[in-house]
């Protein structure tokens, strides 16, 4: 017995109607929720930057941002200057934290000059220089914010990811990984940029050696770890000329 | 049970043990391997699947008489993808932090074979209420295995449960580690999930001989 729903015409009409209904439904949701989502993302960036310079609500083992309600206020309080470095040209821009690092990387690849945002924060009399980094992990994008002192010694780091494996690569945003970066040197004594490698078997699981340019890797997350090393090396190296000018 | 008839109750109970989606139907293995390195991820994934499968089964069941059989798989895929994306968008707008935890699972839920399997095998031929029960039952059955695997992998692989160090500190050498115990890093890698699932299947079939297939 052939059913009405078996005919080609019916199938075709059904497919078309379905696509239109589903498409408009998704478009409606996406566009009506976009302002809220964008606002959440903007606040998150401020929270990330504050986290990297040590303004957070961490308890013993978990990473906690300052609450979304006060993020804007805290950001204005602690971040003194937002710089945009473009070659030798350094300008201040209070929207610098909204610069899309991914787009800037793409621009540099096409031969353009990359705009490098740098956030200068002050807390308890210390100055922090926070730089955003962006790279790729195993499945998708990974990014982060690293705060440094004027000698490019890491004062804090925050990492995040789009779709790393839960329990493995996703653990780059866990305290036990991010906290390892604290105090690590990025420059050799001679002032040459060396970066920090996420290394397996660096014989320093407690991370006491801060000048070995290595932190302990996460078991089962080799490719994500390599991605973290790469984005630190590629992106932070670009800030070296600026830090050299601070010394003069 | 007064609320459910015997037949309906079976829809919930069967998938928990004797017709478990992972150990008997061998569906959803991919996500069981991918995300069970931690107990927390297992629990989050179980709850998400329960939500999507329960709701998806109802939607497919309501549409079962109008879906053209030639393109039914595509229709099922679209329904589940739409549901998951709408939920993800709403979470991103109103519960951003929760969505950060869940967004990793979105792709995994859409491609989860249990969901397509239950749509195809059950919801297309049954009413919405029974489909809903079937969805919840299967999701719970799936969740049980996921949580069991996550429990052993996190305990033996990292020495923690839900992130809490239950066996002592491996670096400070306290608790069990003081006696020379070491975490088994291999437990964190996917092959061990397969082996743990295998052991569960073995134990289950030893207990209930009726499950062993003749060949």
From TrEMBL, chain A:
<keyword id="KW-0915">Sodium</keyword>
<keyword id="KW-0472">Membrane</keyword>
<feature type="domain" description="FMN-binding">
    <location>
        <begin position="137"/>
        <end position="239"/>
    </location>
</feature>
<keyword id="KW-0812">Transmembrane</keyword>
<keyword id="KW-1003">Cell membrane</keyword>
<comment type="function">
    <text>NQR complex catalyzes the reduction of ubiquinone-1 to ubiquinol by two successive reactions, coupled with the transport of Na(+) ions from the cytoplasm to the periplasm. NqrA to NqrE are probably involved in the second step, the conversion of ubisemiquinone to ubiquinol.</text>
</comment>
<comment type="similarity">
    <text>Belongs to the NqrC family.</text>
</comment>
<keyword id="KW-0597">Phosphoprotein</keyword>
<feature type="transmembrane region" description="Helical">
    <location>
        <begin position="12"/>
        <end position="33"/>
    </location>
</feature>
<keyword id="KW-0813">Transport</keyword>
<keyword id="KW-0830">Ubiquinone</keyword>
<comment type="subunit">
    <text>Composed of six subunits; NqrA, NqrB, NqrC, NqrD, NqrE and NqrF.</text>
</comment>
<protein>
    <recommendedName>
        <fullName>Na(+)-translocating NADH-quinone reductase subunit C</fullName>
        <ecNumber>7.2.1.1</ecNumber>
    </recommendedName>
</protein>
<keyword id="KW-0520">NAD</keyword>
<keyword id="KW-0285">Flavoprotein</keyword>
<keyword id="KW-0739">Sodium transport</keyword>
<keyword id="KW-0406">Ion transport</keyword>
<keyword id="KW-1133">Transmembrane helix</keyword>
<keyword id="KW-0997">Cell inner membrane</keyword>
<dbReference type="Pfam" id="PF04205">
    <property type="entry name" value="FMN_bind"/>
</dbReference>
<dbReference type="InterPro" id="IPR010204">
    <property type="entry name" value="NqrC"/>
</dbReference>
<feature type="modified residue" description="FMN phosphoryl threonine">
    <location>
        <position position="222"/>
    </location>
</feature>
Automatic annotation (TrEMBL), chain B:
<keyword id="KW-0997">Cell inner membrane</keyword>
<feature type="transmembrane region" description="Helical">
    <location>
        <begin position="74"/>
        <end position="95"/>
    </location>
</feature>
<keyword id="KW-0830">Ubiquinone</keyword>
<keyword id="KW-0406">Ion transport</keyword>
<comment type="subunit">
    <text>Composed of six subunits; NqrA, NqrB, NqrC, NqrD, NqrE and NqrF.</text>
</comment>
<feature type="transmembrane region" description="Helical">
    <location>
        <begin position="101"/>
        <end position="119"/>
    </location>
</feature>
<keyword id="KW-1003">Cell membrane</keyword>
<keyword id="KW-0812">Transmembrane</keyword>
<protein>
    <recommendedName>
        <fullName>Na(+)-translocating NADH-quinone reductase subunit D</fullName>
        <ecNumber>7.2.1.1</ecNumber>
    </recommendedName>
</protein>
<dbReference type="InterPro" id="IPR003667">
    <property type="entry name" value="NqrDE/RnfAE"/>
</dbReference>
<dbReference type="InterPro" id="IPR011292">
    <property type="entry name" value="NqrD"/>
</dbReference>
<feature type="transmembrane region" description="Helical">
    <location>
        <begin position="131"/>
        <end position="152"/>
    </location>
</feature>
<keyword id="KW-1278">Translocase</keyword>
<keyword id="KW-0915">Sodium</keyword>
<keyword id="KW-0739">Sodium transport</keyword>
<keyword id="KW-0813">Transport</keyword>
<feature type="transmembrane region" description="Helical">
    <location>
        <begin position="43"/>
        <end position="62"/>
    </location>
</feature>
<keyword id="KW-1133">Transmembrane helix</keyword>
<keyword id="KW-0520">NAD</keyword>
<feature type="transmembrane region" description="Helical">
    <location>
        <begin position="185"/>
        <end position="203"/>
    </location>
</feature>
<comment type="function">
    <text>NQR complex catalyzes the reduction of ubiquinone-1 to ubiquinol by two successive reactions, coupled with the transport of Na(+) ions from the cytoplasm to the periplasm. NqrA to NqrE are probably involved in the second step, the conversion of ubisemiquinone to ubiquinol.</text>
</comment>
<dbReference type="Pfam" id="PF02508">
    <property type="entry name" value="Rnf-Nqr"/>
</dbReference>
